[in-house]
């Protein structure tokens, strides 16, 4: 059993096996979706503060845009990983004149508050197996932008059906600007986020698990 279709592809390619896919669940009821007018002009990402998260993508995308640099704030929530990487991120933000707030060891309640009050969620990791934080953001009605690789792209947003993706800094910049400036596009992807998040509800997860057990036992 693997946690995403992306990992099933990896298993098939490298080990010639086709596992069952059982994606992680979330408690939908724990997340609240606020309307656009009640949200702050901030971009949020959640995860360990390590180089493999590639938060520099977000800083560069904002820093290259006069509109975003003046009006948007980046909020990073995550456990402390590599202190040197954290220092590099702060230096990069200063060089690009980008507002960055870093909160380590944030509580679940704080995370839920930030997800529901932010305009955009960005997952900049490469080849991530799944990405439960992306689903949590979607359950909060927050439009998501993910790197065009791994489970967040192939599974969660279903290759662009339920969210936006990027492979270059310029593409990330354009997607952020569109969601910040275009109310109709923001509302569209906010709605799609909520629709998609329901697929990962804990009750549905139990049904999927039962179906797999029926096949293998």
Key words describing this protein structure:
6 strands, 217 residues, alpha/beta, 6-stranded parallel β-sheet, 10 helices, globular, 13% strand
Describe the structure.
The chain is 49% helix and 13% strand. It has helices at 5-15, 56-63, 66-71, 83-96, 108-117, 132-139, 150-156, 169-181, 183-197, 202-216, and strands at residues 42-46, 73-78, 99-104, 120-123, 144-147, 164-166. Helix 4 (83-96) links the parallel strand 2 (73-78) and strand 3 (99-104). Helix 2 packs parallel to helix 4, helix 2 (56-63) crosses helix 8 (169-181) and helix 6 (132-139) crosses helix 9. The longest helix has 15 residues, at 183-197. The protein is globular, with a radius of gyration of 17 Å. The mean pLDDT is 96.
Secondary structure topology:
Elements: H1 5-15, E1 42-46, H2 56-63, H3 66-71, E2 73-78, H4 83-96, E3 99-104, H5 108-117, E4 120-123, H6 132-139, E5 144-147, H7 150-156, E6 164-166, H8 169-181, H9 183-197, H10 202-216
Parallel strand pairs: 1-2, 1-4, 2-3, 4-5, 5-6
